[in-house]
Specification:
This protein is an alpha/beta fold. Among the domains are: 94 residues, no CATH class; 109 residues, no CATH class; 152 residues, no CATH class. Strands 2-1-5-7-6 form a five-stranded mixed beta sheet. Strand 1, helix 21 and strand 2 form a beta-alpha-beta unit. The longest helix has 23 residues.
């Protein structure tokens, strides 16, 4: 059997397994929130581009609004990324090296999680690898005619990646550094095709730029807050150590150590071997940026994930020269892959630890994808019972984006209040806190049409505007057992009353507690 066929069979088998896992857990709150985006397509959103929304919209149009439908593209993109990386590594180092690259990639816990959970990273990584591959095809022999097309496609792929995750813009920096640092490629700056690449990328940035210009550049404010830059910049060495330490967990300790070792050891060859320079510069901009950001506040280990495909191939080049001559290196490589696979199995199914006799002292990390459907079903029953008693329809308010998104997804009777309205709202606020701030809200005023009467008791009004929720009752949902509602809910309703508590347990441990408050007679708050 040829190596290429073995890779295809390996990837196909993994993809089949991943498809079988898609519906075994509830959606994470990010997935539920992205699904809400997909129901309200836009050129951009509060924190990200439109790529994830359009992907989920396409898959749910075929498979329905369920876990499988939302996550369908995760294993598909993981398979595509694996195959692209194989063909790229095969072109660089040979087929056997490409096979081991694919095995190592699919033994990495964070990649395996992303292969069954639909996040922006699956899309971002796919387009990053694709653009890196097409750019290599363009520059390995730039004089051939097809090089122009490869550069144009590279610009498009970087732009599409940007529409999924803004970090993909760093790939344009990588491209420019490679062209500038390699003497034989500098002549490309005198040719129009490099500027066509840049122009294609810029074309893809137009939708998010226009949307942000119309929405107070909220994404820039959000990104500043994610790095804690809105509070100033400080020097915190412990944050850097935390940032680096997390990588040993999510990328598997031995695999990450081998990659770091290979990259550091290869640094001295960066100016002597084109392959090393090329791959290194497809990792450095992203990694250095987030490393510097971590001096202020530790970045999440997936934020710089794009850097490790270039770095991983550099490490492959380094270790491939030694794996044939050293039994110890072969043993360590096998152990590293095995440890990564075990960690991946545990990450995907934490119940495997319980089978082995391990009990979580606190909370099971995978509980964030459990209990949402059960809790929402109990909420729906409680709402129906209250509506039967009161003789009126209640609208829903959740205490945070996470619960509002999960409730919106798992409610069977979504019963939206109007076009674009979410099935569940978050508490009213003057601040723009997330995407809910830009969707229709229960505290907003709509145009008062001729002949329409203002709701009785409406005190605060806008000229020619009316709030259609005034006087109505709501059900407020909050996590935990606080026994009271927040101030902005208390002030917005004449009365609030705790009417029930929902608990979801698993293995005799409570994983989710929601309190339900009946809020009577909504009134608009003064500005």
């Amino acid at each position: 059997m040829s190596t290429t066929r073995a890779v295809w069979l390996f990837v196909a088998a993994l993809t089949a397994i991943r498809f079988s896992l898609l519906a075994t857990t509830d959606l994470s709150f990010d997935e539920a929130h992205y699904w809400m985006w997909s129901e309200r397509l836009a050129p951009a959103y509060f924190s990200k581009g439109p790529g994830i929304a359009f992907a989920i919209r396409a898959s749910t149009a075929v498979f329905g609004a369920n876990e499988f439908g939302v996550r369908f593209f995760s294993p598909v993109l993981a398979a595509g990324t694996s195959l692209l990386l194989f063909y790229f590594a095969r072109r660089l180092f040979g087929a056997i090296a490409g096979l081991w690259v694919v095995i190592a990639l699919n033994a990495t816990p964070i990649f395996n999680i992303g292969a069954v959970v639909m996040t922006i990273d699956a899309l971002s990584i796919f387009f990053w690898i694709a653009a890196m591959f097409t750019f290599w095809l363009a520059v390995e022999n730039p004089e051939r005619f097809r090089g122009s097309w490869y550069l144009l496609v590279t610009g498009l792929l970087i732009g599409l990646g940007f529409l999924c995750k803004y970090t993909n813009a760093f790939e344009l920096i990588s491209v420019l550094f490679v062209l500038a640092l390699v003497p034989r490629l500098r002549r490309e700056f005198k040719r129009p095709r490099v500027y066509l690449l840049i122009g294609m990328f810029i074309l893809c940035t137009i939708p998010p730029i226009i949307w942000n210009a119309q929405h107070a550049w909220i994404t820039l404010a959000h990104l500043r807050s994610r790095g804690n830059l809105d509070r100033g910049f400080g020097f915190h060495p412990a944050e850097v150590l935390s940032f680096l330490g997390q990588h040993f967990i999510v990328y598997s300790p031995l695999l990450f150590l081998a990659m770091a070792w290979g990259v550091i050891a290869s640094w001295r060859r960066i100016n002597h071997q084109f392959k090393i320079l090329f791959l290194m510069w497809f990792g450095l901009p992203v990694f250095v940026f987030y490393l510097l950001l971590s001096v202020n506040k530790s970045a999440a280990p997936n934020w710089d994930g794009l850097a490790f495909f270039g770095f991983g191939l550099v490490a492959t080049y380094f270790w491939w020269e030694r794996i044939h001559t050293s039994v110890l290196v072969r043993i360590c490589a096998s152990i590293g892959v095995l440890v990564g696979l075990i960690m991946s199995v545990v990450a995907l199914d934490t119940d495997s630890l319980r089978v082995a006799g391990y009990q979580f002292p606190r909370s099971d990390p995978s509980d964030r994808m459990r209990g949402w459907k059960s809790a929402t079903e109990a909420l729906a029953k409680m709402r129906n019972d209250l509506e039967a008693q009161l003789g009126e329809k209640l609208f829903l308010i959740a205490d945070a984006r996470d619960r509002a998104s999960e409730i919106s997804f798992y409610l069977r009777d979504k019963r939206v209040e109007g076009p674009g309205h979410p099935p569940a709202y978050i508490p009213e606020s003057q601040d723009m806190v997330n995407q809910f701030s830009f969707w229709p809200r229960y505290d907003q005023f709509v145009e008062l049409k001729p002949g329409m009467q203002r709701p009785e008791g409406e005190v605060y009004t806008e000229e020619n505007g009316v709030n259609l929720f005034v006087g109505r009752d709501a059900l407020f949902i909050r996590a935990g057992e606080k026994g009271r509602v927040p101030h902005n809910i208390q002030a917005a309703f004449q009365s609030t009353e705790l009417v029930g508590t929902i608990e979801v347990s698993r293995y005799r441990k409570v994983i989710r507690i929601w309190q339900m408050f009946l809020c009577r007679s909504y009134r608009t708050l003064p500005l």
